[in-house]
Structure formats: C-alpha cells, structure tokens
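User: I'm writing a short methods note and want a consistent example. For SMc04008-like domain-containing protein, I'll paste the sequence; you return only the structure tokens, no commentary, since I'll be parsing the reply automatically.
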Amino acid sequence: MSKPEHSITDLSQEQRTELEAAAFRTLVQHLRNRKDVQNIDLMNLAGFCRNCLSKWYKAAADDIGLELSAEQAREEIYGMPYAEWKAKYQKEASPEQQAAFDTAKKH
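Assistant:
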C-alpha cells in the first residue's frame, strides 16, 4: 500500500479553507434536504441548529467587513426565506422536546 502524497498537516491555509468550505456547504445542503429534522432536535442533540449556523455565517461576514443582514444569512442556510421555511416545515415542539431543551440550557 502506498503512502498518501500529502499529510493533512502539509495543507496550505488555502487548501484547508477550501476543505472547510466544502464541508460546510455539504452540511448546509444536508440540512436543507432534511427538512424533517427540526431545529429543536438539532439543539437537543448537538447544541446548535440552522439558526446558529446562520448567526455564525453572519458573524463571519461581519469579521471581513461584508454587509449581510441576519435575514440574508438565514436564507443562505435555509435555502429560502426563513419565514417561508418556518411556515412550511417547522412544527410545534412537543412537551418532551421542550423539556429536553430546557434541561440542556441549564448545563
């Protein structure tokens, strides 16, 4: 078996950024495809949701001086205006989901 030509530690900053961006795009597309997965489920299991991603996206834009509204950032993550996504796909949290969220918030 031959050894790979490059080690992950040999990556240039540009290559690392390209890989991170590709992984991010794949994550966003996955979440767009999985509209059945509610944000509260993501929060309860992973501690972040689509809204968190949109806030991080906006913060990154702010860091480089790029004008981007919170709504534009949400639309980038959701693939449609947030109000539209919410009306079409967001369900009311069950008492169990809300209790799990409230418990997780305390930690």
